[in-house]
Write a structure and sequence with these properties.
Number of domains: 4
Strand content: 5-15%
Distance between the termini: 46 Å
Number of strands: 10
CATH architecture of the largest domain: 3-Layer(aba) Sandwich
Number of helices: 18
Shape: globular
Helix content: 40-55%
CATH class of the largest domain: Alpha Beta
Largest sheet: 5 strands, parallel
Structural class: alpha/beta
Order of helices and strands: EHEHEHEHEHHEHEHEHEHHEHHHHHHH
CATH topology of the largest domain: Rossmann fold
CATH superfamily of the largest domain: Response regulator
């Protein structure tokens, strides 16, 4: 069992709640990080995993449904099946807290809390987390794998991984370079009953018969990732299909379905494609590029002990508009360079070596369309895209509250 001080993450849009928890738990030998919203929470978790997460269920003023909190709870557990989440709710939200526990939360506390009650609940959570991790190997490089993004396509990918991770079903991951296939494979393995066993990788393009046999032996009763499976020599494909019993196979490919079927032996294709998942390019993930840029900037600022500098609006617009041919991998590298080489108080367009796109502040469709609903939808959509789907910033520009903007987003399906 770890002897390090327990690390607690408090996710609450009320900064005073975070400070109160931090002051109390600090006195009892715990380190505490705080996050005001889900975006900040993922950055904190990338910097350091939490033994216990204290999660408020509502992030918009006046909301009591817990909708945002439930969505984040699902994502936290999908990202780490050993996560210990304690929901924080008001007296009127006990039914919501019980519902959250049915959804995977470990416990709940009521606001305003008793310090003794909060401390006892957190200490139980720490013990539970460490008991879960006793038999688990540390993640490679100490990094926590996270499939971040708020776009519908990446949310669907997270959902599928969460649903099939605990099974032994074979998984075929398709997508261009840098779209996150290896990350998705790691998450699927980490959420399975084989997570405490080896995660073995085979570079299909470099494999010969001896290497394939060695990797199969190493992955016995564990998980084998076959990277770029379409490059596996035709003579070895039937061997992989025949000798991989008892192994969970996860295969990756950059080919589309038609070309992949043409490249693989029929038996091997049947063995690997129980579940298929396409990882989308970054250009097909509206709003995610800016979200990921902020996340990577925070991660690398912490890693290199550099100040965390905000993005200028021009940089956000350039990041959102760029084609990112190397996808998330390319954006991650650009953010790392920006942290290492940036010298100003902010990260501007030049830090990412991008060009500024034309500034179409008002969608052209509005000029010729006097329909109020369609014009409002276009304005809301434009503001969201311009701010990388940062709801707080888009709402401020539109002169709306976050709750009012959320209602319009729901109305227009944005």
């Amino acid at each position: 069992m770890s002897t390090e001080s327990p690390h607690i993450l408090v996710i609450d849009d009320d900064a005073d709640i975070g400070r109160a928890a931090q002051l109390m738990l600090d006195r009892h030998g715990m380190t505490v990080a705080t996050a005001l919203d889900p975006d900040a929470a993922w950055v904190r978790l990338a910097e350091r995993p939490a033994d216990v997460i204290l999660l408020d269920l509502n992030f918009a003023r006046g909301r009591t449904s817990g909708e945002e909190g439930f969505a984040l709870l699902d994502r936290l557990i999908a990202a780490d099946r050993h996560a210990v989440v304690i929901v924080v709710t008001g007296h009127s939200g006990i039914q919501v807290a019980v519902q959250a526990m049915r959804g995977g939360a470990a416990d709940f506390v009521i606001k305003p809390w008793s310090n003794a009650r909060l401390l006892a609940t957190v200490e139980r959570g720490v013990a539970l987390r460490r008991a879960k991790l006793e038999a688990m190997p540390a993640p490679p490089g100490g990094e926590v794998p996270l499939l971040l993004g708020e776009s519908a396509v990446i949310a669907a990918a997270r959902d599928l991984i969460g649903r099939i991770a605990a099974t032994d079903a074979a998984l075929l991951l398709r997508g261009a370079a840098g779209t996150g296939k290896t990350l998705a494979a790691t998450l699927a393995h980490g959420g399975s009953g084989r997570a405490d066993r080896a995660l073995v990788t085979l570079d299909a393009g470099a494999a010969d018969g001896a290497m394939l046999s060695a990797r199969l032996a190493e992955a016995a009763e564990a998980t084998l990732i076959v990277d770029q499976i379409d490059r596996l020599a035709p003579a070895l494909q039937p061997l992989l299909a025949r000798e991989s019993g008892g192994i969970r196979l996860i295969a990756t490919s950059r080919l589309d379905r038609g070309r992949l079927r043409a490249a693989l032996h029929e038996d091997l294709l049947y063995r690997i494609n129980t579940i298929e998942l396409d990882l989308p390019p970054l250009t097909a993930r509206p709003g995610d590029a800016v979200l990921l840029a902020r996340h990577f900037l925070a991660v690398f600022a912490a890693r290199y002990a550099r100040p965390l500098r905000p993005l200028t609006p021009e940089a956000e617009r350039a990041i959102a508009a760029d084609s990112w041919p190397d996808n998330v991998r390319g954006l991650r590298q650009a953010a790392e360079r920006a942290v290492l080489l940036g010298q100003g108080e902010v990260h501007d367009v030049a830090d990412f070596a991008l060009s500024l796109p034309p500034d179409d502040l008002i969608p052209r469709a509005i000029a010729d369309d006097l329909n109020l609903s369609r014009s409002e939808e276009a304005l809301v959509s434009a503001a969201l895209k311009r701010h990388g789907f940062n709801v707080s910033r888009a709402a401020a520009e539109l002169g709306l509250t976050r709750a009012a903007l959320y209602r319009r987003m729901a109305r227009y399906g944005l």
